[in-house]
């Protein structure tokens, strides 16, 4: 009995300590830091379609409620609900969208307050073997963090391949580097058995493509998350 009491008290004390004071490995601290920094800028998206519903994830890119997601998530939607980190639900309008190949869309919600935003990285710096993290809402489990590496870069199709677990509901969510910068937008998985299993082959659209899309959408740059104009090469 005494041993159980000691173990319980130890657990309580550890949970009350700040993250930096707990005995986490360096790799764990990276995961925790990135998640706590970025998750407040990630939203869940539920689109009402004529033949059912579509669920996905989005990244807040502007504090006034502009959200980046995948176009296939909201394709054919009659109305779109966006749930923010604090559980509040907003109706969204579509600002811009691309076709299936690029698979990107911009939404807007009226949150009536400044929202947390993501930070963009540079996908031209991505290397096979580097650690990546993904945040999404797989099967409705909101704010789920997974980790892996960049498994391959498909230069012909313009896709980053990763073994970080990506499942239905993660589309439109961020693929992140160890600094918490978005380097890709989760798009799809290779799944030959109709979602019976996850075999660790997922794909993300390079974030530089997303930055170009945002630029050409003519939203203006004064409120973009990185507070700077992006330069793009064709």
What does this protein structure show overall?
The chain has four helices and 13 strands. With 234 residues, the chain is of the alpha+beta class. It folds into two domains: 42-117, Trypsin-like serine proteases (Thrombin, subunit H), CATH 2.40.10; 119-210, Trypsin-like serine proteases (Thrombin, subunit H, Beta Barrel), CATH 2.40.10.10. Strands 1-2-3-6-5-4 form a six-stranded antiparallel barrel. Strands 8-9-10-13-12-11 form a six-stranded antiparallel barrel. The longest helix has 15 residues, at 2-16. The termini are far apart. The model is unreliable at 221-234 (pLDDT under 50).
Topology:
Blueprint: H1 2-16, H2 26-38, E1 42-49, E2 52-62, E3 66-69, H3 71-74, E4 77-83, E5 89-97, E6 105-108, E7 119-120, E8 131-136, E9 144-154, E10 159-162, E11 174-176, E12 181-189, E13 202-206, H4 207-216
Parallel strand pairs: 7-12
Antiparallel strand pairs: 1-2, 1-4, 2-3, 3-6, 4-5, 5-6, 8-9, 8-11, 9-10, 10-13, 11-12, 12-13
């Amino acid at each position: 009995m005494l041993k159980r009491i000691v173990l319980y008290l130890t657990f309580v004390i550890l949970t009350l300590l700040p993250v930096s004071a707990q005995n986490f490995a360096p790799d764990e601290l990276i995961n925790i830091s990135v998640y706590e920094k970025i998750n407040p800028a990630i939203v869940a998206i539920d689109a009402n379609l004529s033949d059912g519903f579509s669920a996905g994830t989005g990244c807040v890119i502007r504090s006034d409620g502009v959200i980046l997601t995948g176009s296939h998530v909201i394709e054919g939607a009659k109305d779109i609900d966006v749930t923010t980190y604090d559980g509040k639900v907003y109706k969204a309008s579509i600002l811009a969208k691309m076709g299936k190949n690029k698979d990107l869309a911009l939404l807007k919600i009226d949150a009536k307050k400044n929202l947390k935003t993501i930070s963009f990285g540079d996908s031209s710096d991505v290397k096979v073997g580097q650690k990546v993290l993904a945040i999404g809402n797989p099967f409705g489990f909101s704010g789920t963090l997974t980790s892996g590496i960049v498994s391959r870069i498909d230069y012909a199709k313009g896709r980053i391949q990763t073994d970080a677990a990506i499942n239905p509901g993660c589309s439109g969510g961020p693929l992140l580097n160890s600094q918490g910068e978005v380097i890709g937008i989760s798009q799809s998985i290779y799944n030959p058995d109709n979602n019976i299993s996850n075999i660790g082959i997922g794909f993300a659209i390079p974030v530089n493509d997303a930055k170009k899309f945002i630029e050409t959408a003519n939203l203006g740059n004064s409120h973009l998350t990185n507070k700077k104009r992006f330069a793009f090469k064709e």
